[in-house]
Amino acid sequence: MKDGRKRAVFILINFLKSAGWDYDTIEEKLIAWNKKNGGPLREVTLKGQLRYHKAQQKEMLPPNCEAKQYYVEMGVCQPDHLCSKIKNPVNYALRKAQFLRMQEQKAKKGKRISKKDSLSPKIVENKTGNE
Questions:
Q1: Nearest alpha carbon to residue 90 among 65, 120, 70
Q2: CA 101 to CA 45: how far, in whole Å?
Q3: Phi, psi (5° rounding) for residue 23?
Q4: Do the Cβ atoms of 130 and 37 come closer than 8 Å?
Q5: pLDDT digits over 101-116, tens only?
Q6: Where are the domains of the chain?
Q7: What's the rounded Cα separation, in Å, for the pair 14 and 78?
C-alpha cells in the first residue's frame, strides 16, 4: 500500500478492537501487515497509534462505509448488495459472519442453499496486492 497507510492503521485498530480483538493481537497483526507494505511505516508510528487508542475513554467504531476516502478510494472495498443494509464495516463483518454460520448449519443438515442466500463479499486486497 503506497498511500493511506496511516489511515489504514486508524481503521484497522478501530475495526479490530470493535470486533473484540485484544491490543496484543492487534499489535501483532499490524506489525505483520506493515512488513508487507513497500516502504513500511516506522514501528514507533504503529505503537504510538495503539497507545493513543488505548488511552481513549470510549470505544470508537471505524469510519462508516459512506466515507469513500477510507475504503473505496484506498482500493480495499468494492460494495456489494449487503452494503446497502449496513453503515459500518463492523456491522458488515458481524452480519456476514452470522450468515456464514447459518450456511454451515444448513449444509450440515443437508439443506440446499439458494442463490439468494449466497452472499459474496467484495472486500478485496488493494490494487498493489498487499493487505
A1: 65
A2: 37
A3: -65, -35
A4: yes
A5: 888 888 888 765 554 5
A6: 5-108
A7: 20
